[in-house]
Amino acid sequence: MARQAKHWRTAAVGVAVLGLTLTACGGAKVGDSSSGSGGGADGSGKCGTFNLAVNPWVGYEADAAVVAYVAENDLHCKVTKKDLKEEIAWQGFGTGEVDAVLENWGHDDLKKKYITGQKTAVEAGPTGNKGIIGWYVPPWLAKAHPDITDWNNLNKYAANFKTSESGGKGQLLDGDPSYVTNDEALVKNLKLDFKVVYAGSETALIQAYRKAEKNKEWVIGYFYEPQWFLSEVPLVKVNLPAYKTGCDADAEKIACDYPVYTLDKIVSAKFAKSGSPAYDLVKKFNWTNDDQNVVAKYIAVDKMTPEAAAKKWVEANRAKVDAWIK
Amino acid sequence: MTVALEKPEKSGTAAPVAPVRSPRTVGRRPLLIAAILVLWLALFALLRGKQTLSLAAADLTDLHRWFNDVNDSIGANRDTNPLFLYFFNEIRLVIDTLVTFVRELISQPSDARPLPQIGWLGVVGIAGYVSWAFGNWRVALLAVAGFTFFGLQGLWQESMDTLALTLSSVLVALLFAIPLGVWAGLSDRFHRIMTPFLDFMQTMPTFVYLAPLTLFFLIGGASATIATVIYAAPPAIRITAHAIRSVPETTVEAAESLGATRRQALVKVLLPMSKRTVVMGVNQSIMAALAMVTIAALIDAPGLGKTVVQALQSLDVGTAFNAGLSIVVMAIVLDRVTTAASVRAESARRSQSRLAAWRRPLLGAGAAVTAVLVYLSHTFVWAAEFPGEGGPGSSVASAADSATTWVQDHLSGVTNAFRDVLTNGLLNPFQSLLTDSPWWLVGVVLIALGAVLGGLRAGITTAVCVGLLVGTGMWSDAMTTLASTVFATVLVMLLGVVFGVWMGRSTLVDRVLRPTLDAAQVMPPFVYLVPFLALFGATRFTAIVAAVVYAAPVAIKIIADGVRNVPAATVEAATSAGCDTWQIITKVQLPMARSALTLATNQGLIYVLSMVVVGGLVGAGALGYDVVAGFSQGQLYGKGLAAGLAIVLLGVMFDRITQAAARRSSA
């Protein structure tokens, strides 16, 4: 009993002491201008809120980081980034939840559905990035067997690419299901002794290449540029039969390499008509694969936050940025 | 990532009686099974590769196209359809308001304020006070330590976002779950109708309904909450129903004979008596909600899940582990607090006299302290924003990073060899038996096995499931998944028996292993995918290992309980009869824990199945890949949905067979 009473008395005294001392010596108050946090609210003029979709790959994250940084700091927009897969991001155009997608890879199906069909989205021009899709091998392999970069020699090496998953054939590793891929048709039509094995995610694909280069293992698979991982392991592209316009018209009969994609930006129809300065920024935003790779490397390899990475690049490339917001 | 609930009615009550049977009946069933398998092998040799119903990655059936069309027409009409304008949009509005309110309270700046209404000091104070008031001072200490840990990790805001989402989803889930659970507890018919829906909600992979949810409820907090509610409500419904059902009938009868109306009996007798179990339902709901954190991040749900998913993109194991650890800590804190709350009433009654007198003033004093803390954290920056840069968090991250790198560098040779032996020696032959046999042969074998193991009703259920599986158009992929699932379950049971017996026989081992098992169950699988990929490559085996990590703890816990429940007298009798340890385990403890073993198989299988989709991300292909692909590409949406249905059908089939087998073995 006595012990309990003591507890309770101590608690009461504790409350009083806490209350008095802490309120007395105080400190900076929330909302004081001196407190430093927030701040963006004051400057936001006519831009308002800018909803930016962020698709799940680091290259896109780099695009989004830079555009968001410029929109916030130069145009004083309130930027809301939304982490979404492509399909869902495009859905958001119609519902007003997404204003812009910054890096679209082909996706003619989505263009047909949302631009010509539902008319909720419009194109906003190229990003300046060239999307290259193809089959890649780790650098050690290209060095040890230089003729491997010609598809004609792939059958010669097929046995070396065998794995527990490939059913006795060579393994061609594909990645995330959202990738644009013709690989099954290619293997069939080029009469290659390979089987397409789906890694299921970009993470799995990158890990496979990273390990292959480190341990000198045989791996061939799908990959693409621009991609931060190429600055860590410069994968070598295998030459498939050259792309000619129309050679990919019939999906069943494709026997040629992927075209070079002109990556472009898509915005919601409402946003395009809104007169927001953020729309002009998105429309004028244009940079090179190297630019993107630099920012992507800051994020993925140097582990900077997207904001810090964007700040670093913007400060070093002020002239380019000024052209977007003129 | 199901936190499927053990079916308590079937397991605990029927105390396993030592099997005393005539040798003939024992011998017949294994013989029949062997005959079926031999016949299957013979026919497989003859008919290999015919009528396998395989479907290429990009091919679709009419059913899949029809699903696509439905999906598209919903998307196209959502602005004009009254159902949307007056129903879905209203729901969305209400839930969105709730989520936004909770987030502005603890995690997000609201319009006028640069910081949330209650800062870290206030939240820590509230967490401690509430845990103490509903639980005891020990869990209060744990709660304070856990919440402070989030700040030290440098993940305060993310953790609060996760907490806000969890709390709002659990609140909404309970709003529906408790009335439905009470109803299912009172009415047998409603219980029967409800059960298949609950099975469906728990086994359907979340990926399948994420995309449609954003179609109905738009992107953001509301959709994420609803996705979590769908997943978190079933355990609460089940446990509430179970709680109502397990109130002794005599008590209700006594109340009724005293003239209580049905309503009075419910409010005055049934609900108070089942309160303790209902709180366990709340606990399970919270755990299920936390399991959804990373998945919901794929449709822009805020919080720790986002950190995990983003770290996965750049293969940053350390950062993913950091955030994953916070999820684990949150789960452990919430679990212990709700568990303590559920036993509070009883322990309070026991130690009544001494503490009760002081409880009220102490509660008042605690409330006052908490109020001061909340006020401070509302007003002053130092109490609102967690100080420091999260230094401990980054050391945790870099430690996790170097540990994984070491493991990857030193073990990948061994692990690859291990993988190849098991894959080529066991998995591949078994899989080709399933996928290369004609579909009707496999179907007949499954039905026959179902009937032999589980009886006529299980046989009929299996037949229906096989028919529907063929109907989904995903037969071949379903058989590939079935092979990996069975393989993983065998590994789970091996681990379950070894560690379960060990834990069941020694309290010390139990105390050491249990926290690890808890952590393995709650740690989001996305965190350990990267190291597993390094160890085993993008293969089916990686998926199997991930599934085993997730499912083995459940099996181990169930078997440990089964072994512990073997009466001590029986074990002593065996010891005095001269049995050595090995004999006691194999001749006494395991046979007597037989119903625990079947329950462990059942739960192991269902947990493994819930990892099929995660497996699709690391090279398992088949149904898991189809589901992920359906989530990623519009034209594969219908196929993904069909694959999701196929997973549900496999789950139902497994569940019914193992449960019927369990009933038979304990009968």
From TrEMBL, chain A:
Identify the InterPro entries for this entry.
ABC_Gly_betaine_transp_sub-bd (IPR007210)
- The signal sequence is 1-26
One Pfam entry name: OpuAC
Q: Which CDD domains match?
A: PBP2_BCP_2
Which positions fall inside the ABC-type glycine betaine transport system substrate-binding domain? 51-315
Alphabetic keyword roster: Signal
What this protein is called in its record is Glycine betaine/proline transport system substrate-binding protein
Which lineage?
Answer: Bacteria, Bacillati, Actinomycetota, Actinomycetes, Kitasatosporales
